[in-house]
Design a protein that fits this description.
The complex is a heterodimer of chains A (about 325) and B (about 500). Chain A has about 325 residues and is mainly alpha-helical. Chain A is built from 14 helices and four strands. Chain A is globular. In chain B, α13 packs across α14. Chain B has a six-stranded mixed β-sheet with strand order 6-7-8-3-9-10, sandwiched between helices. Chain B has three domains: about 240 residues, Rossmann fold (3-Layer(aba) Sandwich), CATH 3.40.50.300; about 160 residues, 3-Layer(aba) Sandwich (Rossmann fold); about 80 residues, no CATH class. The longest helix of chain B has 16 residues. Chain B is α/β, with parallel strands linked by helices. The chains are: A mainly alpha (about 325), B alpha/beta (about 500).
């Protein structure tokens, strides 16, 4: 019993069995790439890895909340692009950097709210509502920019992506900070627990007096705000905003969440998991590039990883379902 | 022929990692008999059945089906051996027709490879009329009542020419009349020499329908006895290992002032003009067949469904809750009828579930004090004697009785004043039932008020001080304890007047 308790405590530090397993996978990948590539463990390379993970790592944080609430948000890529373009348009019209960023975040939050209203009040399935939003926002972007790229931003804005804190890129610092905040929200706040309760059983959440409407709105707004931040960061990093930026990000974000142990049927998922899931995916991509492996092969590996993660979860469930 | 053993299980032992679910259990079922399998939740009934149906593999022991030793590999294999089961949660494709469900997996096709609907419809109608059930083959399953769906499940079993059928809690969601109908069909199966295993928590049913009874306790065989050789008390004593005088005999207290007052409450299409008062310390019963509006009334009081007219007053204050959260702040708790679909978040921990309705007590500015939440949870786990290794256990992994205790704990934690229990003991074993009744006793002794809905008459009559009976959305009357009799309640519930009032008119 006492060893058992110790074990549970140890596991609790990282989150659970899934997280422990992911940590193992990550360690294994680091070992393999570290041994086979001389540059993998170089500080600059590791920082580059973090920088590359940051953007979609942030998007995945929002996505995992939506998935825990038993929803899905396909509009993340478009909202990310929208955020970048709005910021870019404001900046090229000489709006103050801070003001531009705030406006972009509020505009994206509004899109999240519309998603929430459609889903909660309109009873539109999340898949359909956010798929509609994905196409709508993307088309709006094309119209707003005449399908052209916007560039020419002030130094202060471009500096965001270049900035470093003790050698660590600011992008990664933002991502890690947001991860800690998201972890706190998920574990320690009423809103976070309500999202889990709603995702596990909407009916029982409602009959327990939980404000389910605000829970749904909050979830989709949170996701949109994460996309807004990611969109601003990527625009700063690329020094331009293209109307196509963020296309396909929804799939990477869903993949990170699923690899991290989130269940698409809701009620299950963790921030630590999605964090590790995101790093594992970019480690595979980057390690592959370093070793000169055809990137399509790495995509196959990632695809297999996603399916394996779900398979493992299902197998555990079947064993766990036994009395 | 009568006494031929269709299934014989000998020395069955089943080990799960860390748990011995079954130990050296013998069980046999003969052709043409109804063999009741009873025991508290966790006694090993489902494990035994699942081993026979190929869902689990036994660790030790022998299974003989019609004289031949077999290893049941999977459910499909069980089916091919003529073994089948009607589970309490019937798994039908809700959007497909009766016939399509009945022939699922082996839909006949015509020469163009197109499903031969005409054939399956004719055959389905034939099967259903052979058991005397009026169901149209083309009807969509979701349009049928639970009872009718169960009849279709039986029809499907018959169609598969099963020699052995397990009924797992078949009456959990049926009304009294529907139960009678089911028993008629089971009788018919018996006459066709089908071997039947009947699992139920309801003593009356077991005595009514079974020929022999096997009792399991903690994974071991207590004994197999002919039904006529035991009475209810003997059986309960076998199941729980102790004598139970009368489990409904809880201590009532002197009633206080009016706690809840419901006046002219109506909701179009569901119920109209409901009037009743419940006193402090009272257990107020509500009874009605499915569709009588009893659950709808309490959901309306709880603010879950909007009312069209009428007033709900709690302790002299008009509440008229417009949402569950309003009702909860007024001190009303509702333990909904369907535990898994409405009461519990199955994926979440006991702690999360317990604190769900009283989250403001353990949070400030939206930030939770999880330590305090865990302390509260532990307190109610102890009070309710919920059997669990820890409060971080996922609700899904608990037995029915313990799950129900978690839901009750949620409302105790919310420190509610009026507790509405809608079917609180469905799928709960005898031991946990007694513990739940103890909670009722404790609640009323604190001057709290209870409304209990139960479709199980002995329970609702045994526990309540007064009983409101509904029929098709109409309040038929409120019986005092002195007027309690099954006949009176059933008369009202089926829309008839009491004999007494009839006489009164002439006097």
């Amino acid at each position: 019993m006492s060893t058992n308790e110790k074990q549970t405590k140890k596991i609790k530090l990282v989150g659970g069995k899934t997280e422990l397993f992911l940590l193992g996978v990550l360690a294994l990948l680091f070992l393999v790439f570290g041994l086979t590539s001389p540059v993998f463990f170089r500080f600059s390379n590791l920082m580059n890895l973090l920088r590359q993970t940051s953007i979609y790592g942030i998007v995945a944080l929002g996505m995992v909340f939506v998935i825990i609430s038993s929803g899905i948000d396909l509009s993340v890529g478009s909202v990310l692009g929208f955020s970048g373009t709005v910021t870019a348009l404001l900046l090229t019209n000489n709006v103050n950097v801070v003001v531009a960023i705030l406006i972009a975040i509020v505009a994206c939050a509004a899109i999240g709210l519309v998603n929430g209203v459609l889903i909660y009040d309109g009873k539109v399935p999340p898949f359909i509502a956010t798929m509609g939003m994905m196409s709508l926002v993307r088309a709006m972007l094309m119209l707003m920019t005449n399908a052209r790229m916007i560039s020419g931003f002030p130094e202060s804005f471009l500096g965001i992506a270049r900035a470093e804190v003790f050698g660590v890129p600011l992008l990664a610092v933002v991502w890690i900070t947001l991860t800690i905040i998201a972890w706190f929200v998920a574990k320690k706040t009423v809103f976070g627990r309500n999202v889990y309760a709603f995702g596990s059983n909407e009916e029982s959440a409602r009959l327990s007096g939980i404000n389910t409407r605000l829970t749904v709105y909050g979830t989709y707004i949170f996701s949109a705000v994460m996309c807004a931040i990611a969109g601003i960061l990527i625009t700063s990093r690329l020094s331009n905003a293209a109307p196509t930026t963020g296309t396909g990000y929804e799939l990477d974000a869903i993949a990170a969440a699923v690899v991290g142990g989130a269940s698409l049927s809701g009620g299950k998922g963790s921030i630590t998991g999605v964090f590790l899931g995101a790093i594992i995916m970019s480690t595979l991509r980057q390690g592959g590039t370093l070793l000169g492996i055809n990137s399509f092969i790495m995509e196959i590996v990632i695809a297999l990883l996603i399916v394996a993660a779900v398979l493992l979860d299902q197998m555990q469930r079947r064993r766990g379902g036994v009395k | 022929m009568d006494h031929q053993e269709i299934v014989k299980m000998t020395g069955i032992t089943k080990l799960f990692p860390g748990v011995r679910a079954l130990h050296n259990v013998d069980f046999d079922v003969r052709a043409g008999e109804v063999h009741a399998l009873v025991g508290e939740n966790g006694a090993g009934k489902s494990t035994l059945i699942k081993i026979l149906m190929g869902v689990h593999q036994k660790t030790e022991g022998e299974i003989v089906v019609e004289g031949e030793r077999v290893e049941v590999k999977n459910p499909l294999h069980a089916q091919s051996l003529g073994l089948s089961a009607v589970y309490q949660d019937i798994n039908f494709a809700q959007h497909l027709s009766v016939a399509e469900n009945m022939f699922m997996g082996k839909l006949p096709r015509n020469k163009f490879g197109i499903v031969d609907h005409k054939a399956i419809n004719t055959e389905t109608n034939h099967i259903m009329s052979s058991i005397g059930v009026d169901v149209e083959a083309t009807e969509i399953i979701s349009n049928l009542t639970i009872a009718k769906q169960e009849m279709v499940a039986i029809g499907k079993v018959l169609h598969q020419k099963a020699k052995f059928v397990i009924f797992d809690e078949p009456t959990a969601q049926l009304t009294t009349e529907e139960t009678e109908e089911l028993f008629r069909i089971i009788q018919m199966l018996k006459e066709k020499n089908v071997a039947i295993v009947y699992i139920s928590h309801r003593m009356e049913e077991i005595f009514q329908i079974s020929d022999r009874i096997t009792v399991l306790k903690d994974g071991e065989l207590v004994g197999t006895v002919p039904t006529e050789s035991v009475n209810e008390d003997d059986l309960i004593a076998m199941m729980v290992g102790r004598k139970l005088e009368d489990m409904y005999n809880i201590k009532h207290i002197e009633l206080g002032d009016t706690a809840l007052k419901v006046e002219n409450l109506s909701r179009a299409g569901e119920f109209a003009d409901i009037n009743f008062e419940v006193k402090k310390g009272e257990i107020f019963g509500m009874f009605g067949l499915v569709g009588s509006g009893r659950s709808e009334i309490v959901h309306t009081i709880f603010g879950d469904k909007p009312r069209d007219s009428g007033t709900v007053t709690l302790h002299g204050k008009v509440t008229n809750a417009k949402s569950p959260s309003e009702a909860i702040s007024a001190g009303i708790a509702l333990l909904p009828e369907n535990r898994k679909e409405q009461g519990l978040a199955l994926e979440l921990s006991i702690s999360d579930n317990t604190n769900m309705a009283s989250v403001e007590n353990i949070s400030s500015m939206g930030v939770l004090n999880t330590k305090k939440g865990d302390q509260i949870t532990q307190k109610f786990v102890d009070i309710l004697q919920t059997k669990t290794p820890s409060i971080s256990q996922i609700a899904k992994n608990l037995s029915g009785g313990n799950q129900q205790k978690v839901v009750i704990g949620k409302w105790l934690a919310a420190d509610s004043d009026l507790f509405i229990f809608d079917e609180p003991t469905v799928g709960v074993d005898v031991g946990a039932k007694v513990e739940i009744y103890k909670v009722f006793e404790e609640l009323i002794s604190q001057g709290k008020t209870i409304i209990i809905i139960s479709s199980y008459l002995p329970e609702v009559m045994g526990l309540s001080n007064r009983l409101l009976v509904m029929h098709e959305g109409k309040q038929m009357g409120i019986l005092d304890k002195s007027e309690y009799s099954e006949e009176n309640v059933l008369r009202l519930a089926s829309g008839m007047q009491l004999e007494r009032s009839h006489k009164d008119e002439y006097e």
